[in-house]
Amino acid sequence: MSEHRGETDWRSADSEPWRVCVLGLSGEAVGAGMLLGGSTVLTCAHVVEDARRGRPADQPPEVLVRFVGCPGMPESRARVRGDGWAPALEDGRRDIALLELDTAFPEVPGAPLVRLGFVRDRVVRTYGFPHPHQYGVWVNDAQLAGPAGAGGEWVQLNSKQPGERVRGGFSGAGVIDKATNAVLGMVVTEYTDDRVGLAYLIPVEVIVQYVPVVAGWVGAPPSARPDLDVADDEEAGWDGWAGVFVDAAGKTPAQVAERISGESGGRPDTGPTGGAPLAVTRIDDSRAPEKVLTETVWPLLRGGTPVVVQFSGLDSSAARLARRWQEEGNAARLARLAMLAEIVEAEEDRTRALALRFRTPGHPPAAVPGHAAELRMRLGALRAARGVGTGRMRRALVSTEHHAERVHRELVGLHADLVARAARLDELRGLLRAYNARVADSGLMEDEGLGVPYRAAMTALSAGLGGDLAAADELVRGYIDAVRRRVGAM
Prior knowledge:
With 490 residues, the chain is α+β, with helices and mostly antiparallel strands. The protein contains nine helices and 16 strands.
C-alpha cells in the first residue's frame, strides 16, 4: 500500500473531506462512501456489487474511490476488507462494506461517527451521486422520522418536497447532523416513488453490530467551532497565560498577524500559533479593529486555534462582532452538549442491556452509573440561562462538555470491560462443563474431592458479570487442576 504525502490542502477545499464517491472501474459513479481513517472507507455492500455488475467473475473485485471536496486528491483503487463484508439479507438488513484503499490518506480526517441509536426529528444533510450528477449533489434539511425497515434497524429519512431528495446514487453517503456535523449513519435505500422524499439510513449503532471493527472509529461529535472567548475588562490580567499573547494596540491587521507568527514560532503543520491558544488584547485600539477580527482572528478560529480577545470597552463595533461570534459559538456548544447527553443516554442503555443479559437469578446485574439524567438537568439549566453573559455561559458550557465527554469515555470503557468479562465468563463456564464431563466419563461424579471445588466454582460463576471474576477464574483453575490430578492417578 502506498501513502498519500499530503500535497493537497484539504482544509481549504472542504469542511467534510472524508466524503467520497464510489465508481466502477469504467469511471461511472455508483454510490457514495465515507473515509473512516487512513485507508478504510465505509459504504453499502450493494454499491460494491453495482460497481462490479457486468464484469467477468474472474476479474479482481475492485472499485475506484474518488474524494469529493479535495481537488487534486488522486483516485484510489479499493477492495473489500475481510472483516468488513456484510451483504444485504433478503429483507434488506445488513448491506455494509468496508473498503481498503490502495493508497492511505493519513492526513485526511475521517468521518466523525457517533452512536445515537434511533433518533427522531434531527435535521440532517447528505451528499450523493444520482444520475446525471457525476460529481454529486446535496440534500439539505432532511429530517429523521424514527425506526423503520425490517427489525426496525433503519431510520426513516424524509426529504423536503419540492426539492432535491435522497434517491439512487446516495447509497453509502454519510448522514450529517446539521447542528453538530456529526455523522449519524449511512444512506442505504430510497423509496422509489418520485412524489415523496422518502429514504432510509442505517444508524451507526446497527453498522457496528454487523461490522464490529467500525466501533474503533466511533466517538463524540466534533468540537464546536469557533472557540472564541471575549475577556471582560476585570478578567484582563494575563499573569500565568500559557499561550501566545499579542497586544494589537496601534497595529494593522498584517502587523498583528506578523506578531502572532513571531511570538509563537508557528510551524506549517500546527498553524501560526504552533498549536498553542492565542490571546489578542486591546483590539479596539488597533488601526483597523474589525479587520483584525475578520482577517486575522477568524481564519485562526476556523483552523481550530482557541482565541481569547480583549477590548478596552465593549461598545465598539468590533467588540459587538466578537460578542456575536461568541454567542454563535455558545449556540453550537449547546447543540453539541445536547447530542452528548443523547450519546451518554444511549451508551447507558446499551451497557445496561449487556449487564442484564448476563444477569443470573438471585444476583444483581453489574452496576452501570447513571449520568444521563444529571446531564439533562444541567442542559436544561444552561438553556434557561441563555440570557446570561456570553463569557460566563461559554465557561459553563465548556465545563459541562468536559464532564459529558469524561462520563462518555467511562461508559465506553465500562461497556468494553463488560464485553471482555462476558467473553471470559463464557470461557470459564465452558471449561467447567468440559472438565465436569471428563469427570463423568471417568466415573468420578460421586468423588467428593472433586465435588467440593466444582460446587465452589459453579457458585462463583453463578454471580455472572456482577461477581468477582478473578476469584471465579481461580476456583475454575483449581477444579481443573484437581480433575487432572485425580483422573491422571487412575
